[in-house]
Amino acid sequence: MKRYMIESALRFVAAVGICFGVLLSAPTFAQTAIQSQDANVAGIVAEVSECKRADGVLSVRMRLRNTSAGEVTVYLIDKNNYDSYYVTAGNKKYFVLRDTENKPLAPQADGGGVSVTIAKGGQYVWWSKYPAPPNDVKKVGYYTPITPPFDNVPITD
User: Fold this and answer.
1) Which among 4, 63, 90, 91 has most CB atoms closer than 10 A?
2) Per-residue pLDDT reduced to its tens digit, 5-16
3) Which sign, positive or negative, has the C-alpha torsion 98, 34, 152, 78?
4) Structural domains in the chain plus CATH codes
């Protein structure tokens, strides 16, 4: 009887472990692209996946997907050119916010630059934060040095 109980308990633990492992390995669903276009880098598709306003800050996420046959290196920041990533609303430009130490609220440059190597079929998410335009503004333009402009990107409040 004791051996049967131990074997039953072990089977239960194994079954729970297998179920938990399957759940952890299940693919996560990526955010749907708001807008998508080819980047100025061969084999890379850029997708704005978030443009959200909260507490006076506009958060933007841009997913870069590698659709080429091999890995691709993308140079996102060169010589700390964070101001080449900006949002427009009306006739005003909104540049990347900076913290109290003057560091951009975006991926940090290592030695003045940010580059990523994206594997075939892989992706990378660039994020940046901007001063939010007024609440009556419902769409913005998003400009980057690696893509054509994203026009009329809807803001989520």
Assistant:
1) 63
2) 445 443 443 333
3) positive
4) 35-154 (2.60.40)
